[in-house]
Write a structure and sequence with these properties.
Length: 219
């Protein structure tokens, strides 16, 4: 069970005790033998959706349009500080390192969405009849834009933290030949698309396996 002091500190940190149209969910993230508590906060307005992922000193913030396509993404921890901005079919990547600002521009594939945070970007896809979709993502570890494919698999009943859910399983693979050597899996609640579980590596293909599991709705 999550201690109340952790919940309060998180709410206070982001100033959302009085915020409207916001939802916060907590998850455990386990890599090797290390498990940390993470929080996902989603705030919706008439035109934008803001998603904050907080894990220890690591903060990711993504702004989406109503189609769940990313517009702005930032990543910051005690070693890295990135900001990504979509401008037409270009992705401007700004990196702050040793008091210097480094910039690089990437060409995005037209008509292929940029989905930066899969636990949110895939929610609408999980609810639709479409079986497969291709999209682009920027990987911090590779410092590059790659193309991924999401494919709906079976409807599965899974157990997460002693609760049973009916879920839509979605498999993620690389679009190139690397798809034969790497994949990751997401599970979303069938009834409403709530992200429940992830299994895979955070940066394909050679990092340690990570498991993310839903704990509870905080707010």
């Amino acid at each position: 069970m999550i201690k109340p002091v952790f919940i309060f500190c998180f709410l206070l940190m982001f100033g959302i005790i009085y915020a409207k149209n916001s939802q916060i969910y907590s998850y455990t993230e386990t890599t090797n033998d290390t498990t940390v508590l993470t929080y996902y906060k989603t705030t919706k307005t008439d035109s934008l959706i803001k998603r904050i992922n907080q894990k220890g000193d690591e903060t990711q913030i993504t702004y989406y349009n109503k189609k769940n396509e990313a517009l702005i993404f930032s990543f910051k921890d005690n070693k890295s500080d990135y900001k990504l901005t979509k401008e037409g079919n270009k992705l401007l990547v700004e990196r702050y390192c040793a008091n210097k600002q480094l910039q690089k521009e990437y060409e995005l594939i037209p008509e292929t969405p940029w989905w930066q945070t899969m636990s949110y970007s895939l929610t609408k896809f999980s609810q639709r009849t479409k079986k497969e979709v291709e999209y682009q993502v920027f990987l911090i570890g590779l410092y590059d834009v790659i193309k991924l494919r999401a494919m709906k698999k079976d409807i599965e009943k899974i157990e997460v933290n002693s609760s049973t859910f009916v879920t839509q399983k979605i498999e993620i693979t690389l679009c190139n030949f690397g798809g034969n050597f790497w994949n990751a899996n997401y599970w979303f609640r069938k009834s409403d698309g709530l992200f429940l579980k992830y299994e895979g590596t955070n940066n394909p293909p050679c990092t340690a396996k990570t498991v993310i599991e839903f704990v509870e709705k905080v707010k």
